[in-house]
Specification:
The chain is α/β, with parallel strands linked by helices. 40% of the residues lie in helices and 15% in strands. It has a 6-stranded parallel β-sheet with strand order 3-2-1-4-5-6, sandwiched between helices. The longest helix has 21 residues.
Length: 204
């Protein structure tokens, strides 16, 4: 029925309609502070923060809907993951990449290296964000990293002048300290889980 309705509209009306859609979409992005969200895998969308195979990894119940909500608001949503076990041969890079795309991510940026390799893409180094910049047009100041690790995800957000949202569902890091009194200054917030993080993003 909808397609038939559009078929009956004069060309001028169609042009006005599509111009209005583009205008409203542009206004949304102007008014919304954030356009791009990077989300960690282990401990953030599922699992316990430690390595788990593709077969063993279980998503949190709210993970897929949280990704979908961000995308429904016009945001680009990318996976961001360190996966040492790819280099070790325990996991295939393309199988891992495809598993993230099936979850609804627009793209996935993955470091397959161990810490000993001393690459430039292992979080909290900036390599994965630099890869994303080569493929997509976005500004760091309007981007967010959501993850469960202060030492990698949130530190990367600070390194790139992005908002870092820490979720308390993954690996506990007793030895990595960020002064809570300076969280606002450092552009860091802490929430319970990914669903709470998305609620925050969509309300700001």
């Amino acid at each position: 029925m909808l397609y038939g309705y559009f078929d009956q509209l004069p060309l001028k009306s169609l042009r006005l309609f599509y111009s209005s859609v583009r205008f409203n979409f542009t206004i949304y992005h102007i008014l919304n502070n954030y356009t791009t969200v990077f989300i960690d895998r282990d401990g953030t969308i599922g699992g316990n923060g430690h390595y788990q195979s593709l077969n063993d990894f279980e998503l949190f119940p709210y993970a897929l809907s949280s990704i979908a909500r961000l995308k429904a608001h016009g945001m680009s949503v990318f996976a961001l993951s360190n996966q040492t076990h790819i280099e070790k041969g325990d996991m295939n890079y393309y199988d891992f990449f495809n598993s993230l795309i099936k979850m609804g991510f627009d793209d996935a940026f993955i470091c397959p290296h161990s810490e000993q390799t001393n690459c430039n893409c292992r979080k909290p180094k900036k390599g994965l964000i630099e890869q994303a910049h080569r493929k997509y047009n976005f500004q760091n100041k309007r981007s967010i990293i959501i993850g469960d690790r202060f030492s990698s995800d949130i530190q990367l957000a600070q390194n790139c002048q992005m908002l870092g949202i820490h979720v308390a569902t993954g690996k506990f890091e007793p030895q990595y300290f960020i002064d809570n009194q300076n969280q606002q200054k450092k552009n860091i917030i802490t929430v319970q889980n990914l669903e709470s993080a998305v609620n925050y993003v969509l309300s700001n």
